[in-house]
Give the backbone structure.
Amino acid sequence: MPTQLHIVTLLTDFGLKDHFVSAMKGVMLGLNPDLHFVDITHLIHPQDVRSAAFVLGQAYPYFPANTVHLAVVDPGVGSARKAIAVSAGGQYFVAPDNGILTYVLEREADALAYEITADHYFRKPVSTTFHGRDIFAPVAAWITRNISLFQFGPQLENPVRLSFPQVKKVRDNLIQAAILSVDHFGNLITNLKPEDLPAYGGGAAGTCKIVTPQKKEITSFRNAYAEGSEGEVFVLPGSTGNLEIVVRNGSAASTLGLAAGSVIGVVLGP
């Protein structure tokens, strides 16, 4: 009879140089040797909870039911910040309660969060600097062994949610938007949707342009990378469902000097 497949994903800012990720996997395999690991990424910029939340929010919907997602970007390790286990959308999440699960909590109406307090599930002794190994990893493994989340601690009514910038209409012809994330290629993922711009059939008919804080204007709107000319800066609908500012065979982040959190304007013409 085939062994049941238990998938655990890992997302951290631990990098690929040190022992941290392998130590967490070793702890989990000690509790369940039948685990199958998927590394979402370990190259989140150190302590960048916002980027981690975005990446997790893009990745988790593609995994099958009962996947356990272990997300550890934890600048508050050793402090009074809570540790949480969450069931949402038929999947499970184990993470510090610092907003890293914001996209999951916003998207999944059935999300239930529990504070992790039952220390008999922890690896001992618990390091004050490596809760990923001593708290989060063993809890993730215990979930794959059918331990119910309520056994880890009390239900948590209001887990931390980050406040992400919203598209804002400043006046009739001006929209304020923002960069949510920068991917590996330097593409700038905005909080704009195609339906926000007339270039993609949204809003009133007419022209539009995106203006950066440095007063650079972007007036090209395309549907695929290959439609742009070499080195051209343009906008296209990305795979996340958001509009992206890109450079054909280049980095929009470097070209424009923008980063996650940068504010941009959309000027609507007649």
Observations:
- The first strand starts at residue 6 and ends at 12.
- The chain has a mean pLDDT of 93.
- DSSP finds five helices and 15 strands in the chain.
